[in-house]
Amino acid sequence: MADTGAGAKIYLKPVGFLDSPQYFDDQNKRLNNSLLWFSQIEYSIFEDGKPAIRSLVPVELWDKIASRLPEPLQARSAKLFANLTKTHAPLQCGERVLRFDQPHVMGILNMTPDSFSDGGKHDGDPQIAADAGFDMATAGASILDIGGESTRPGADTVWEGDEIKRVVPVIEKLAQCGAALSIDTRKAAVMEAAIAAGAHIINDVSALLHDKRSLEVAGVSGRPVVLMHAPSSGKDPHRGDGYGDVVTDTFNWLEQRISDVVEAGFEREKVIVDPGLGFGKSLSDNLALMNNIALFHSLGQPLLIGASRKRMIGALSKEAPVDQRLGGSIAFAHHAVQRGAQIVRVHDVPETVQAVQVWRGMRDAGVTARV
Q: Which of 59, 134, 357, 364 has its CA at 20 to 30 Å from residue 259's CA atom?
Protein backbone atom coordinates (compact mmCIF):
# COMPACT_ATOMS: atom_id res chain seq x y z
CA MET A 1 0.00 0.00 0.00
CA ALA A 2 1.27 3.48 -0.92
CA ASP A 3 2.46 5.80 1.82
CA THR A 4 -0.01 8.39 3.08
CA GLY A 5 0.56 11.64 4.92
CA ALA A 6 -0.37 12.51 8.48
CA GLY A 7 -3.48 14.38 7.32
CA ALA A 8 -4.87 11.51 5.25
CA LYS A 9 -8.51 10.55 5.81
CA ILE A 10 -10.26 7.34 4.80
CA TYR A 11 -13.88 6.84 3.73
CA LEU A 12 -15.79 3.57 3.30
CA LYS A 13 -18.74 2.88 1.02
CA PRO A 14 -20.57 -0.46 0.90
CA VAL A 15 -21.10 -1.71 -2.67
CA GLY A 16 -21.84 -4.97 -4.44
CA PHE A 17 -25.33 -5.42 -2.97
CA LEU A 18 -26.65 -8.98 -3.28
CA ASP A 19 -30.04 -10.26 -4.37
CA SER A 20 -29.81 -13.46 -2.32
CA PRO A 21 -27.21 -13.22 0.47
CA GLN A 22 -27.94 -16.66 1.92
CA TYR A 23 -25.90 -18.27 -0.87
CA PHE A 24 -22.76 -16.35 0.07
CA ASP A 25 -22.55 -16.61 3.85
CA ASP A 26 -18.88 -15.72 4.18
CA GLN A 27 -18.78 -13.17 1.40
CA ASN A 28 -21.21 -10.50 2.56
CA LYS A 29 -22.19 -8.30 5.49
CA ARG A 30 -25.58 -6.96 6.42
CA LEU A 31 -25.93 -3.19 6.06
CA ASN A 32 -27.04 -2.16 9.54
CA ASN A 33 -30.18 -4.19 10.37
CA SER A 34 -31.70 -3.54 6.94
CA LEU A 35 -32.79 -5.83 4.12
CA LEU A 36 -29.54 -5.19 2.26
CA TRP A 37 -26.29 -7.15 2.21
CA PHE A 38 -23.08 -5.87 0.64
CA SER A 39 -20.20 -7.93 -0.73
CA GLN A 40 -17.54 -5.26 -1.30
CA ILE A 41 -16.04 -2.17 0.28
CA GLU A 42 -15.02 0.80 -1.83
CA TYR A 43 -12.46 2.69 0.18
CA SER A 44 -10.99 6.09 -0.61
CA ILE A 45 -8.08 7.84 1.06
CA PHE A 46 -8.05 11.61 0.67
CA GLU A 47 -5.08 13.88 1.24
CA ASP A 48 -5.39 17.66 1.18
CA GLY A 49 -9.03 17.26 0.17
CA LYS A 50 -8.22 15.20 -2.92
CA PRO A 51 -8.43 11.43 -3.53
CA ALA A 52 -4.99 9.80 -3.29
CA ILE A 53 -6.06 6.15 -3.26
CA ARG A 54 -9.27 4.42 -4.37
CA SER A 55 -9.77 0.67 -4.29
CA LEU A 56 -12.42 -2.03 -4.19
CA VAL A 57 -12.09 -4.93 -1.73
CA PRO A 58 -14.25 -8.03 -1.12
CA VAL A 59 -15.60 -7.92 2.42
CA GLU A 60 -13.96 -11.23 3.32
CA LEU A 61 -10.57 -9.59 2.66
CA TRP A 62 -11.32 -6.30 4.35
CA ASP A 63 -9.71 -7.13 7.71
CA LYS A 64 -6.49 -8.12 5.94
CA ILE A 65 -6.41 -4.93 3.88
CA ALA A 66 -7.33 -2.74 6.85
CA SER A 67 -4.51 -4.23 8.91
CA ARG A 68 -2.01 -2.83 6.39
CA LEU A 69 -3.22 0.74 6.78
CA PRO A 70 -1.19 3.26 8.80
CA GLU A 71 -2.31 3.29 12.42
CA PRO A 72 -4.55 6.43 12.37
CA LEU A 73 -6.35 5.13 9.30
CA GLN A 74 -6.72 1.67 10.86
CA ALA A 75 -8.60 3.08 13.84
CA ARG A 76 -10.83 5.24 11.67
CA SER A 77 -11.58 2.44 9.20
CA ALA A 78 -12.53 0.11 12.06
CA LYS A 79 -15.00 2.70 13.35
CA LEU A 80 -16.50 3.32 9.92
CA PHE A 81 -16.88 -0.39 9.19
CA ALA A 82 -18.53 -0.95 12.57
CA ASN A 83 -20.98 1.83 11.72
CA LEU A 84 -21.89 0.08 8.46
CA THR A 85 -22.80 -3.12 10.26
CA LYS A 86 -24.30 -1.77 13.49
CA THR A 87 -27.94 -2.30 14.44
CA HIS A 88 -29.96 0.90 14.66
CA ALA A 89 -32.23 0.83 17.69
CA PRO A 90 -35.92 1.58 17.12
CA LEU A 91 -37.24 5.03 18.04
CA GLN A 92 -40.28 5.37 20.28
CA CYS A 93 -42.41 8.21 18.89
CA GLY A 94 -45.47 8.40 21.08
CA GLU A 95 -47.39 5.20 20.42
CA ARG A 96 -45.54 4.69 17.13
CA VAL A 97 -42.33 2.66 17.06
CA LEU A 98 -40.01 3.34 14.12
CA ARG A 99 -37.95 0.25 13.41
CA PHE A 100 -35.07 0.59 11.01
CA ASP A 101 -35.13 -2.90 9.53
CA GLN A 102 -37.34 -1.47 6.77
CA PRO A 103 -37.57 1.92 5.03
CA HIS A 104 -40.11 4.55 6.05
CA VAL A 105 -41.97 7.17 4.05
CA MET A 106 -42.15 10.65 5.57
CA GLY A 107 -45.01 12.73 4.17
CA ILE A 108 -44.49 16.47 3.69
CA LEU A 109 -47.21 18.72 5.10
CA ASN A 110 -46.42 22.39 4.51
CA MET A 111 -48.42 25.09 6.28
CA THR A 112 -46.85 27.83 4.18
CA PRO A 113 -48.00 30.20 1.44
CA ASP A 114 -44.70 30.07 -0.44
CA SER A 115 -43.16 26.58 -0.40
CA PHE A 116 -41.70 25.69 -3.79
CA SER A 117 -44.09 22.78 -4.45
CA ASP A 118 -47.31 23.08 -2.47
CA GLY A 119 -47.19 26.61 -1.05
CA GLY A 120 -50.65 27.86 -0.06
CA LYS A 121 -52.33 24.48 -0.43
CA HIS A 122 -53.01 24.15 3.31
CA ASP A 123 -52.08 27.62 4.55
CA GLY A 124 -54.64 29.09 6.96
CA ASP A 125 -56.85 26.01 7.30
CA PRO A 126 -55.67 23.55 9.97
CA GLN A 127 -58.56 21.17 9.34
CA ILE A 128 -57.83 20.80 5.63
CA ALA A 129 -54.17 20.28 6.48
CA ALA A 130 -55.03 17.71 9.15
CA ASP A 131 -57.29 15.87 6.71
CA ALA A 132 -54.39 15.73 4.24
CA GLY A 133 -52.18 14.40 7.02
CA PHE A 134 -54.70 11.70 7.94
CA ASP A 135 -54.83 10.71 4.26
CA MET A 136 -51.04 10.38 4.18
CA ALA A 137 -51.04 8.26 7.33
CA THR A 138 -53.81 6.05 5.93
CA ALA A 139 -51.81 5.67 2.72
CA GLY A 140 -48.84 4.35 4.69
CA ALA A 141 -46.69 7.31 5.77
CA SER A 142 -44.85 6.39 8.97
CA ILE A 143 -43.96 10.02 9.67
CA LEU A 144 -45.63 13.36 8.87
CA ASP A 145 -43.27 16.33 8.58
CA ILE A 146 -45.13 19.55 9.39
CA GLY A 147 -43.52 22.87 8.54
CA GLY A 148 -44.52 26.52 8.81
CA GLU A 149 -41.62 28.26 7.05
CA SER A 150 -40.42 27.74 3.50
CA THR A 151 -36.69 27.15 3.06
CA ARG A 152 -36.72 27.41 -0.74
CA PRO A 153 -34.10 29.75 -2.23
CA GLY A 154 -35.16 33.38 -1.71
CA ALA A 155 -37.95 32.63 0.76
CA ASP A 156 -38.78 35.25 3.39
CA THR A 157 -38.01 34.53 7.03
CA VAL A 158 -41.12 33.88 9.13
CA TRP A 159 -41.54 35.31 12.64
CA GLU A 160 -41.62 32.45 15.15
CA GLY A 161 -45.03 33.49 16.48
CA ASP A 162 -46.57 33.19 13.02
CA GLU A 163 -44.82 29.87 12.48
CA ILE A 164 -46.25 28.54 15.73
CA LYS A 165 -49.77 29.64 14.71
CA ARG A 166 -49.39 27.75 11.46
CA VAL A 167 -48.17 24.40 12.81
CA VAL A 168 -49.49 23.89 16.33
CA PRO A 169 -53.22 23.53 15.46
CA VAL A 170 -52.34 20.95 12.80
CA ILE A 171 -50.14 18.94 15.15
CA GLU A 172 -52.87 18.94 17.79
CA LYS A 173 -55.42 17.64 15.28
CA LEU A 174 -53.04 14.91 14.09
CA ALA A 175 -51.99 13.74 17.56
CA GLN A 176 -53.97 10.50 17.23
CA CYS A 177 -53.38 9.84 13.51
CA GLY A 178 -51.07 6.87 14.13
CA ALA A 179 -48.02 8.33 12.40
CA ALA A 180 -45.01 9.88 14.11
CA LEU A 181 -45.20 13.68 13.90
CA SER A 182 -42.13 15.69 12.91
CA ILE A 183 -41.77 19.46 13.26
CA ASP A 184 -39.80 20.99 10.40
CA THR A 185 -38.28 24.11 11.95
CA ARG A 186 -35.00 25.79 12.84
CA LYS A 187 -36.41 27.89 15.72
CA ALA A 188 -36.29 26.80 19.35
CA ALA A 189 -39.59 28.45 20.31
CA VAL A 190 -41.37 26.60 17.49
CA MET A 191 -39.77 23.35 18.61
CA GLU A 192 -41.03 23.90 22.16
CA ALA A 193 -44.57 24.73 21.04
CA ALA A 194 -44.69 21.80 18.62
CA ILE A 195 -43.44 19.34 21.23
CA ALA A 196 -46.05 20.60 23.70
CA ALA A 197 -48.68 20.04 21.00
CA GLY A 198 -47.54 16.45 20.41
CA ALA A 199 -44.61 16.44 17.96
CA HIS A 200 -42.30 13.42 18.29
CA ILE A 201 -39.33 14.38 16.05
CA ILE A 202 -37.42 17.59 15.33
CA ASN A 203 -36.32 18.12 11.73
CA ASP A 204 -33.93 21.08 11.53
CA VAL A 205 -32.40 22.14 8.20
CA SER A 206 -29.70 23.99 10.17
CA ALA A 207 -28.74 20.96 12.30
CA LEU A 208 -29.59 22.92 15.50
CA LEU A 209 -27.24 25.78 14.56
CA HIS A 210 -29.63 28.55 13.43
CA ASP A 211 -31.04 29.26 16.89
CA LYS A 212 -28.63 29.20 19.84
CA ARG A 213 -31.33 27.64 22.06
CA SER A 214 -32.20 24.79 19.71
CA LEU A 215 -29.62 22.29 20.93
CA GLU A 216 -30.74 22.72 24.55
CA VAL A 217 -34.43 22.52 23.65
CA ALA A 218 -33.93 19.40 21.55
CA GLY A 219 -31.77 17.74 24.18
CA VAL A 220 -34.12 18.46 27.07
CA SER A 221 -37.10 17.25 25.05
CA GLY A 222 -35.55 13.81 24.51
CA ARG A 223 -36.99 13.80 20.99
CA PRO A 224 -35.08 12.35 18.03
CA VAL A 225 -33.61 15.01 15.75
CA VAL A 226 -32.76 15.17 12.05
CA LEU A 227 -29.47 16.99 11.45
CA MET A 228 -29.37 18.25 7.88
CA HIS A 229 -26.38 19.61 6.01
CA ALA A 230 -26.74 23.09 4.56
CA PRO A 231 -23.93 25.47 3.57
CA SER A 232 -25.20 28.14 5.97
CA SER A 233 -27.10 28.23 9.26
CA GLY A 234 -27.97 31.90 8.72
CA LYS A 235 -31.05 33.47 7.16
CA ASP A 236 -30.40 31.84 3.78
CA PRO A 237 -29.49 28.15 4.17
CA HIS A 238 -28.47 27.99 0.50
CA ARG A 239 -25.64 30.54 0.73
CA GLY A 240 -22.17 29.00 0.50
CA ASP A 241 -18.76 29.15 -1.14
CA GLY A 242 -19.00 25.87 -3.04
CA TYR A 243 -17.25 22.59 -2.41
CA GLY A 244 -13.92 20.92 -3.01
CA ASP A 245 -15.48 17.46 -3.10
CA VAL A 246 -19.19 17.74 -2.27
CA VAL A 247 -19.50 14.16 -1.02
CA THR A 248 -16.60 14.18 1.44
CA ASP A 249 -17.22 17.82 2.40
CA THR A 250 -20.82 16.99 3.31
CA PHE A 251 -19.75 13.80 5.08
CA ASN A 252 -17.09 15.62 7.11
CA TRP A 253 -19.54 18.36 8.10
CA LEU A 254 -22.15 15.89 9.28
CA GLU A 255 -19.54 13.79 11.08
CA GLN A 256 -18.35 16.83 13.01
CA ARG A 257 -21.89 18.01 13.74
CA ILE A 258 -22.88 14.61 15.13
CA SER A 259 -19.79 14.69 17.34
CA ASP A 260 -20.56 18.20 18.59
CA VAL A 261 -24.19 17.40 19.35
CA VAL A 262 -23.30 14.19 21.19
CA GLU A 263 -20.53 15.95 23.11
CA ALA A 264 -23.13 18.50 24.21
CA GLY A 265 -25.12 15.68 25.82
CA PHE A 266 -27.51 14.59 23.07
CA GLU A 267 -28.17 10.85 22.73
CA ARG A 268 -26.42 9.49 19.63
CA GLU A 269 -29.15 6.87 19.19
CA LYS A 270 -31.64 9.68 18.57
CA VAL A 271 -29.72 11.38 15.75
CA ILE A 272 -30.82 11.01 12.12
CA VAL A 273 -28.77 12.59 9.31
CA ASP A 274 -29.75 14.20 6.01
CA PRO A 275 -27.17 15.30 3.37
CA GLY A 276 -29.41 18.21 2.38
CA LEU A 277 -30.08 17.64 -1.31
CA GLY A 278 -30.86 20.91 -3.07
CA PHE A 279 -29.56 23.14 -0.29
CA GLY A 280 -26.79 25.26 -1.79
CA LYS A 281 -25.90 22.44 -4.18
CA SER A 282 -25.72 22.35 -7.97
CA LEU A 283 -27.20 19.63 -10.15
CA SER A 284 -23.82 17.88 -10.33
CA ASP A 285 -23.45 18.18 -6.54
CA ASN A 286 -26.87 16.62 -5.97
CA LEU A 287 -26.19 13.77 -8.39
CA ALA A 288 -22.84 13.07 -6.73
CA LEU A 289 -24.58 12.81 -3.37
CA MET A 290 -27.32 10.56 -4.76
CA ASN A 291 -24.70 8.28 -6.32
CA ASN A 292 -22.87 8.03 -2.99
CA ILE A 293 -25.76 7.67 -0.56
CA ALA A 294 -24.35 4.39 0.77
CA LEU A 295 -21.19 6.14 1.98
CA PHE A 296 -23.20 8.11 4.54
CA HIS A 297 -24.13 4.91 6.40
CA SER A 298 -20.60 4.90 7.77
CA LEU A 299 -21.61 7.90 9.89
CA GLY A 300 -23.44 5.38 12.05
CA GLN A 301 -26.87 7.06 12.06
CA PRO A 302 -30.17 6.40 10.26
CA LEU A 303 -30.26 8.26 6.97
CA LEU A 304 -33.03 10.51 5.59
CA ILE A 305 -33.13 11.48 1.91
CA GLY A 306 -35.37 14.25 0.58
CA ALA A 307 -35.34 14.66 -3.21
CA SER A 308 -39.07 14.93 -3.83
CA ARG A 309 -40.08 17.33 -6.66
CA LYS A 310 -36.77 19.23 -6.41
CA ARG A 311 -35.32 21.34 -9.18
CA MET A 312 -32.81 18.70 -10.18
CA ILE A 313 -35.70 16.54 -11.42
CA GLY A 314 -36.82 19.34 -13.70
CA ALA A 315 -33.24 19.87 -14.87
CA LEU A 316 -33.03 16.20 -15.85
CA SER A 317 -36.45 16.05 -17.55
CA LYS A 318 -36.80 18.94 -19.99
CA GLU A 319 -37.62 21.41 -17.20
CA ALA A 320 -40.74 19.57 -16.08
CA PRO A 321 -42.76 21.85 -13.77
CA VAL A 322 -43.07 21.05 -10.09
CA ASP A 323 -46.45 19.34 -10.40
CA GLN A 324 -45.11 17.01 -13.12
CA ARG A 325 -42.17 15.49 -11.26
CA LEU A 326 -43.79 12.38 -9.82
CA GLY A 327 -41.76 9.94 -11.89
CA GLY A 328 -38.47 11.57 -11.03
CA SER A 329 -39.41 11.80 -7.35
CA ILE A 330 -40.18 8.09 -7.18
CA ALA A 331 -36.99 7.25 -9.09
CA PHE A 332 -34.90 9.12 -6.54
CA ALA A 333 -36.82 7.68 -3.57
CA HIS A 334 -36.44 4.16 -4.97
CA HIS A 335 -32.72 4.67 -5.51
CA ALA A 336 -32.32 5.94 -1.94
CA VAL A 337 -34.13 2.88 -0.56
CA GLN A 338 -32.00 0.59 -2.73
CA ARG A 339 -28.93 2.12 -1.09
CA GLY A 340 -30.28 1.62 2.42
CA ALA A 341 -31.84 5.00 3.27
CA GLN A 342 -34.08 4.43 6.26
CA ILE A 343 -36.40 7.38 5.56
CA VAL A 344 -37.48 9.06 2.32
CA ARG A 345 -39.20 12.46 2.62
CA VAL A 346 -41.83 12.92 -0.10
CA HIS A 347 -44.86 14.88 -1.29
CA ASP A 348 -46.50 11.98 -3.15
CA VAL A 349 -47.13 9.52 -0.35
CA PRO A 350 -49.44 6.83 -1.86
CA GLU A 351 -47.29 6.38 -4.96
CA THR A 352 -44.03 6.27 -2.98
CA VAL A 353 -45.44 3.88 -0.39
CA GLN A 354 -46.50 1.56 -3.21
CA ALA A 355 -43.02 1.70 -4.75
CA VAL A 356 -41.42 0.93 -1.37
CA GLN A 357 -43.86 -1.92 -0.72
CA VAL A 358 -43.02 -3.50 -4.08
CA TRP A 359 -39.31 -3.14 -3.34
CA ARG A 360 -39.88 -4.68 0.10
CA GLY A 361 -41.68 -7.64 -1.46
CA MET A 362 -38.77 -8.22 -3.83
CA ARG A 363 -36.26 -8.02 -0.99
CA ASP A 364 -38.28 -10.41 1.19
CA ALA A 365 -38.27 -12.91 -1.66
CA GLY A 366 -34.57 -12.41 -2.24
CA VAL A 367 -33.54 -13.07 1.37
CA THR A 368 -35.80 -16.09 1.82
CA ALA A 369 -33.78 -19.24 1.32
CA ARG A 370 -34.98 -21.55 -1.41
CA VAL A 371 -34.61 -25.32 -1.30
A: 59
